[in-house]
Amino acid sequence: MSSTIEKLYKKYKRLSTPNQYTIKEVETILRKEYSAVSFPIKEVAFLLSPEEVKVLNTCFKMQEPEVLFNLFTEQEKRDLTELKEINKQNPLNLEIATKSEVEYTRIQEGHYVMLFFGTNHEGKIQDVKLLGHSQKMFDLMTVFIGVEHNQCTLENRDFQDYLYALSNLGYLD
Question: With pLDDT > 90 as the criterion, what percentage of the chain qualifies?
């Protein structure tokens, strides 16, 4: 067991953060902190597989430039710039491109980020999908899905990932 994870665990035990978030709590955080806008799944189902449409029932989109600027790391911003240049050299043929190809290209270039959530019967986050590359959003979704209290042991890899996500987001500072 690494000393880093043990230190994170000690800090975690002092927190009052929920181990698993409800969709209402997630919605409040995303709207307030990330200017996220909700979308009916039916309007964006073309971005999901049929199996995902069955389990994901809530969708949020983040597209405010200032939010996106703060969402991406410096490396992610460089990667997005590079991808935009590649796409300029090899643009989509809009006459034959599908709607999903166009939107996936826009997501890959960092024009917006989509978050999808599925909930259990208690309204707690159970399934997640992130469209767009953002370590911060990946960590946030890890925190939202959480870990059952009885699974919060240092031997549990999911719990370790949860602790690292909390740390990366500054919750354990």
Answer: 83
pLDDT digits (tens, 9 = 90+) for 124-166: 999 999 999 999 999 999 999 999 888 999 999 999 999 999 9
Q: How far apart are the C-alpha atoms of 101 and 33, rounded to whole Å?
A: 29
Instruction: Summarize the confidence of residues 97-106 as an average pLDDT.
Output: 94
Half-sphere exposure of residue 17: CA atoms within 13 angstroms, side-chain side: 25
Residues with Cβ < 8 Å from 151, sequence gap 6 or more? 158, 159
167/4 Cα distance (integer angstroms): 11
User: How many CB atoms neighbour CB 3 within 10 A?
Assistant: 7
Q: Measuring CA to CA, which residue among 81, 59, 84, 58 is closest to residue 69?
A: 81
Contacts of 9 (CB under 8 A, 6+ apart): 154, 163
The pair of structure tokens assigned to 84 is 């935009």
Give mean pLDDT, residues 34-59. 95
